[in-house]
Amino acid sequence: MISSKYGTEKGIHTSDSKKDVIRVYGENYYEREDTGATIIGYFDKNHKLNIEFSLDDKDKVGGILVQKINN
Fold it and tell me: Is 43:50 a contact under the CB 8 Å cutoff?
């Protein structure tokens, strides 16, 4: 079962739509495919973080991944 208990600082949770993510995080994202899922992601160069949202076949957020970027 997917839980919307956890979310990002900007209020995005699992089951939110791709449009919700873009509205909150902006149009400057990358998109890729991974194991059959569409992933959209954003780089935060100031905080050296990368955040990715995996989308299901209905463009709903199924997972959120935050990674620290090492230089």
Answer: yes
The DSSP call for residue 68 is E
Q: What is the DSSP string of 55-66?
A: E-TTSBEEEEEE
**Length of the chain, in residues:** 71
Checking DSSP bridges between strand 49-55 and strand 30-34, what pairing results, if any? unpaired
Per-residue pLDDT tens digits for 25-50? 999 999 999 888 899 999 988 889 99
Question: What DSSP designation does 6 have?
Answer: -
Residue type, 19: K
pTM of the model: 0.87
39 burial (CB, 10 Å; 0-12 / 13-18 / 19+) is middle
